């Protein structure tokens, strides 16, 4: 579920063309709502001007605007302008809080040009009436994005600030004060900075990530809610700006009660992807109105935008532990199939198994690979769905057509089968690879009578069904027609495609699957790089259930999630895993031919449990299970 919905009015604040002091930007707005009015204080970026000290630069100042509904803002006007030596090259990114009857507006002060860490610090403006301002220089070290809690906690003023933002690693830290005057006591700050490790909140998941404060804290019954900027792979050429949240204890804000573990927002819309600085969403203001959170954020360092969400739903998700989410559980005797050194065709790896249950026995068709890196398909059975009761010594399916025979060194053959029974016929779709061309989808069939009798030599000659020179794989056929059409899923990178077909009479020459993407990778999440289906759709009372794999830009690991499709309109996604339901954790999943991979191709259902058969690290086969009703309930709750 996306907890925040962008306003249809976005951007809610844009630079006004007749105001040169904000001509290049009106962004990173911080909001304060009282007496039926929302005041928005924002960073205004001027057109390039000749500064009195010599350089031409686009100067930052703090503007303000007003709105009755928190969406339609008017009366843009300057509020804070660079005046004093410690802010003479700009005032940026305000955070406004009312406390003890006064308004405290912290901002980033720029004292040097060209800009460098030593000249970037925190400034403060205090007012009672938004007319007369009292300014103070706050930090004698590199810091930004300071914000005050809106009330005293156990008699003290508390503040959050982002420290060392321009000499990473950055830290979000806490400071407390007995009096207002201590806010600008430089000696006190120097001592505090010397003990920074005592004050920081440990939010970074990786040393390559970056955090900065976003909004002022919101008081809720559950704790202090703070939205902040979490930037994945900050030092890479393509960092991913995301919005996350933490919940701090009401009486001890140093204590983190809960936090999000996936992004609440990432750059997706055009106004977030393109602007003065592309691909940025940066949270800077929040207002709570009943159960609705109004989250204001800067988009592409150009405009201010709004997203709204339910406080109750967000807090419920933040407090939900990993143990409370439906997760696949491994069979304790995994792996159930391993390479056989005596069989040259499966001496290197056995993995990515299709599975289907026939008369109480699970038939497993698995990908096997020898030292020559040729993939074939082997066969095994399990009477109880867990332990192997039969395994054939020879492959049941080998490369026969030129499009799956080795044309150059490298992986080739028949990979990753998916098996569907449709009427009295079994359809097997698999990835055909010749090592010289991009992988393609192949189709072969076998009568139910022959399949169940083990007459695998009668598989029909394979037909290539995906277009030439296109990397296409991870294909499957729905087990019944929908709306009078056959339905197939496949994957042309990086998305999952759906095709509705009048018939299955492919000729391998002119009729091919088409590119109709409908499920895409999600930036900043566990499935951000690429996705593909894992299992044949399972019909349930709630919809068509499909397991799929996602590869993360963050670490490159293959994880498993699920999505639910409408029974009559499978192009409509009803729900999709917000978190993976299965990740590589054991040694046999983390170490192998390809490390850190869990990759199912088949499942069965027994007593309300999905029994899932998967490849581990492209070398062995394991089995895992998950409670089906719990998974369906979770998918419907997550939404899309």
Give an account of the 3D structure.
The protein is mainly β. The protein folds into two domains: 4-320, Tachylectin-2, Chain A (5 Propeller); 329-638, Glycosyl hydrolase domain, family 43 (Tachylectin-2, Chain A, 5 Propeller), CATH 2.115.10. Helix content is 7%, strand content 45%. It is built from seven helices and 42 strands. The strands form nine sheets. Strands 23, 24, 25, 26, 27, 28, 29 and 30 form an eight-stranded mixed beta sheet that branches. Strands 14, 15, 16, 17 and 18 form a five-stranded antiparallel beta sheet that branches. Strand 17 (240-248) and strand 18 (256-259) form a beta hairpin. The protein is elongated. The protein starts with a strand and ends with a helix. The model has no long low-confidence stretch (mean pLDDT 96).
What characteristics describe this protein?
640 residues, mainly beta, Tachylectin-2, Chain A, 2 domains, 8-stranded mixed sheet, 5-stranded antiparallel sheet
Topology (SSEs and partners):
Layout lengths: L3 E3 L18 E10 L2 E14 L5 E12 L6 E7 L10 E9 L2 E9 L9 E8 L6 E4 L5 E6 L8 E7 L7 E7 L8 H9 L1 H4 E2 L8 E4 L4 E3 L2 E10 L7 E9 L7 E4 L10 H4 L7 E9 L2 E8 L3 E8 H9 L9 E2 L18 E10 L2 E9 L4 E9 L7 E2 L20 E11 L2 E9 L6 E8 H6 L9 E2 L7 E6 L8 E7 L2 E7 L15 E3 L10 E4 L4 E2 L4 E8 L6 E8 L7 E4 L10 H4 L7 E9 L2 E8 L3 E8 H11 L2
Parallel strand pairs: 25-27
Antiparallel strand pairs: 1-21, 2-3, 3-4, 4-5, 6-7, 7-8, 8-9, 10-11, 11-12, 12-13, 14-16, 15-16, 16-17, 17-18, 19-20, 20-21, 22-42, 23-24, 24-25, 25-26, 27-28, 28-29, 29-30, 31-32, 32-33, 33-34, 35-37, 36-37, 37-38, 38-39, 40-41, 41-42
């Amino acid at each position: 579920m996306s907890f925040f919905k962008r306003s249809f009015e976005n951007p809610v604040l844009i630079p006004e063309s007749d105001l040169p002091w904000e001509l290049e930007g009106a962004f990173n707005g911080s909001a304060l709502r009282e007496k039926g009015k929302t005041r928005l204080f924002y960073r205004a970026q001027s057109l390039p001007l000749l500064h009195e000290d010599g350089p031409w630069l686009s100067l930052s100042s703090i503007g303000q605007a007003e709105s009755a509904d928190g969406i339609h803002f008017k009366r843009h006007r300057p509020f804070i302008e660079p005046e004093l030596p410690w802010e003479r090259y700009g005032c940026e990114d305000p955070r406004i809080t009312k406390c003890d009857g006064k308004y405290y507006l912290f901002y980033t002060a720029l004292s040097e040009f060209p800009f460098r860490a030593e000249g970037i610090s925190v400034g403060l403006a205090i007012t009672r009436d938004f007319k007369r301002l009292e300014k103070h220089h706050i930090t004698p070290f590199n810091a930004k994005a300071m914000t005050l809690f809106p009330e005293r906690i156990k008699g003290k003023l508390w503040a959050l600030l982002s420290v060392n933002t321009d000499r990473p690693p950055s830290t979000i830290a806490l400071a407390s004060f007995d009096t207002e005057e201590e806010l600008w006591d430089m000696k006190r700050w120097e001592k505090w900075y010397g003990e920074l490790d005592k004050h920081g909140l440990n939010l970074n998941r990786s040393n390559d990530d970056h955090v900065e404060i976003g909004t002022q804290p919101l008081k809720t019954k559950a704790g202090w809610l703070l939205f902040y900027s979490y930037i994945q792979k900050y030092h890479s050429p393509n960092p991913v700006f995301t919005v996350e949240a933490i919940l701090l204890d009401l009486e001890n804000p140093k204590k983190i009660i809960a936090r999000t573990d996936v992004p609440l927002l990432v750059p997706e819309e055009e106004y977030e992807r393109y602007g003065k600085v592309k691909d940025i969403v940066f949270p800077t203001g929040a207002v709570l109105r009943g159960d609705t959170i109004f989250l204001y954020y800067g988009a592409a360092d150009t405009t201010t935008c709004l997203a709204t969400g339910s406080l109750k739903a967000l807090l419920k998700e933040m407090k939900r532990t990993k143990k409370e989410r439906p997760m696949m559980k491994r069979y304790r005797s995994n792996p159930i199939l391993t390479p056989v050194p005596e069989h040259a065709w499966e001496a290197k790896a056995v993995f990515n198994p299709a599975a289907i249950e026939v008369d109480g026995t699970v038939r497993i068709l698995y990908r096997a690979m020898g030292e020559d890196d040729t993939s074939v398909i082997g066969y095994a059975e399990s009477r109880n769905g867990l332990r192997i009761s039969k395994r054939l010594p020879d492959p049941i399916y080998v490369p026969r057509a030129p499009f799956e025979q080795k044309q150059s060194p490298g992986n080739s053959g028949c990979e990753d089968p998916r098996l569907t029974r449709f009427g009295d016929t079994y359809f097997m779709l698999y990835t055909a690879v010749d090592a010289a061309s991009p992988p393609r989808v192949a189709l072969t069939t076998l009568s139910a009578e022959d399949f169940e009798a083990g007459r695998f030599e009668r598989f029909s000659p394979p037909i290539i069904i995906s277009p030439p020179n296109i990397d296409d794989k991870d294909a499957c056929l729905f087990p019944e027609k929908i709306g009078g059409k056959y339905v197939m899923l496949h994957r042309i990178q990086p998305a999952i495609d759906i095709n509705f077909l009048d018939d299955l009479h492919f000729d391998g020459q002119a009729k091919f699957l088409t590119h109709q993407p409908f499920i895409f990778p999600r930036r900043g999440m566990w499935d951000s790089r690429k996705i593909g289906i894992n299992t044949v759709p399972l019909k349930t009372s709630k919809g068509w259930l499909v397991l799929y794999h996602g590869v993360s830009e963050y670490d490159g690991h293959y994880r498993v999630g699920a999505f639910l499709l409408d029974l009559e309109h499978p192009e409509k996604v009803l729900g999709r895993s917000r978190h993976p339901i299965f990740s590589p954790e054991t040694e046999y999943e983390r170490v192998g031919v390809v490390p850190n991979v869990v990759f199912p191709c088949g499942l069965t259902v027994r007593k309300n449990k999905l029994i899932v058969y998967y490849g581990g690290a492209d070398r062995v086969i394991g089995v895992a299970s998950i409670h089906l009703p719990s998974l369906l309930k979770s998918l419907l709750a997550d939404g899309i």
